[in-house]
């Protein structure tokens, strides 16, 4: 969040409103392709955390390899869906001459990278299930600095949208590879053996994942549809004006929501041990902490949002984007407060009720 806060003005001014708007639409579109994982990643974390708590290493390996097989099939699905969309959607966005080809290339690059990275989620789920956030974040923060340096270099050279897409995809792929290496070091009994994938394990992942996908769809429609609608109905430049106000509130939500994710494997391990009172205490305290952390951030954005935007992005963005910031800041409060509750639903396997609610 901090890096993107400082990097966003640089990217906007280097790409210009139209190209940056296209980038926002590409990111939103590929977010929808995330549905292709069929909700398997939260399902994998759920089952891995339980079997880790019970010391059931064979079962853990079955679910890891079953997750890998399912993710691989999902990656193929992403490619099949992205190919026609990459050539169709830029024509619907009313782009200026020369921008359609760049938009098509960016969609293909980002979607292709996502398809390659998907199977490796099976191994990063092991790190989450073991609650080794020090390892997970050490890798991700290190790669974030590498990506930031490359983005500064690429855009300073004037290489544009396609180079930006290649930079993001390349660093993400390296990060997933490092997660995989770390997972095998943290869990000596972990084995890469696709033959260990079983229909029973895949069935459990998909049943859990089906409801998890419904949650993901609801969240994606709620938080990531705006750029596509604005780009289609108005212009790519209008997406940038919306995104500048939206992103500050979104960063606040994401920062706190990511912190709440630690509740998922923790509640999963408690559930595996039958510690229901511990889960209740964890949930109650987590919601309190989330609201205590959110309060000052929300208050600041509501009171000082307009002058903040003027300093951050420039007076023209303060004029056009501050109302978006105000409305979206109000909208993120319930999302922040409910994040631990969602995590407990995932951790304890009660995803159906959460899906119906979402």
Describe this structure in words.
With 358 residues, the chain is mainly alpha-helical. It contains 14 helices and no strands. α2 packs antiparallel against α3 (57-92), α4 (99-117) runs parallel beside α7 (160-186) and α10 runs antiparallel to α12 (276-312). The two termini are 25 Å apart.
Which descriptors apply to this entry?
single chain; 358 residues; mainly alpha; 86% helix; 0% strand
Q: Tally of extended strands?
A: 0
- Helix and strand content put the structural class at mainly alpha
Report the span from N to C terminus: 25 Å
Report the portion of residues in β strands: under 5%
> Given the C-alpha coordinates, what overall shape results?
globular
* Helix run count: 14
Major sheet description? none
Helix proportion: over 70%
Kindly provide the radius of gyration, computed on alpha-carbon positions and rounded to a whole number of angstroms: 21 Å
Helix and strand run: HHHHHHHHHHHHHH
Unreliable stretches: none
Average pLDDT reading = 88
